[in-house]
Amino acid sequence: MKSNMKNYLRWPFCAIFFLVLQSNAQTRLPIIGMTTSYKNDSLLHAEGFVYIEETVTRILSPDIPEDTFRLRLQQIRKMRCKLENCNGFFPATMKLVGPAVNENQVLTYVDKVMQRAKITGIKTIVLGSGAARNIPDGINHDTVRLQFVDLCRKMAVIAARYDCTIAIENLNTTETNFVTTLAEANDIVNAVHHPYFKLTADIYHMLKEHETADNIEKAGKNLVHCHLAEREKRTPPGVAGDDFRPYMLALHHIGFTGKISLECRWDNMEKQGRPALEYLRNQIISSYK
After folding, report:
1. Fewest CB within a 10 Å sphere: which of 93, 185, 208, 255?
2. Which residues on neighbouring strands pair with residue 32, listed in sequence order?
3. What letters, b where the CB count within 10 A reaches 16 and e where it falls short, cover 217-238?
4. Is it the case that residue 25 has pLDDT exceeding 80?
5. If you classify domain 30-287 with CATH, what class do you get?
6. pLDDT (0 to 100) of residue 216
């Protein structure tokens, strides 16, 4: 009798516990961070940000001497904000498309960057690098695309060895002439077809190219990361009052709960940081209901 009573009481408790877990899962929201120097850690932590997105140039580049890298690594390990993402993958002088590509140089560079990413704890590197991927005049676009997909697949194989995902980013036509929409970037990801080669949705660039939020939904699980700023002057959220909710709603529809980095032009980060964070967070909350 006592055993039956215990079982009888246990079932309601389990049901309530399951509903609580389910409710928490349904209300999980994307995380908001900022693309900036790791040296701004204290400021951003005080403003409520939980992560910083750094650049390969500043912390992972093979051009950084080993003693300098180790010193920065010590500083990074003391940060209160997480540092798991980088952008600015390739220097402008290292070409990724066209006749000037030196594949061995590119792949050697990627391997060295990934070695340092593993040591630092970087899990995602955004592949923007507009100048590096710009198609030279007179080169056939379809030929370049095949070349680029093949190179990216080889890069992804290297990235897999270090458990670091490469996430290609859509840019706008003022920054490059190749992969200028999220739809095109998603096609590249599908063609590469590798678990360590995914997609960054840059909503600022989408706005510049008048690209609708539908392409976020079409990207689905390929999308692992986001960048965001206001359309006209790349200002922080709330300065011009841009409405990001259609894009946030699309992210909600694909179940995105990853990182959204504010990649903006700041007049005064100390004064603008918290209002920008709150403005975007409110739009996310209203879209994820």
Report:
1. 93
2. 260
3. eebeebbbbbbbbbbeebbbbb
4. no
5. alpha beta
6. 98
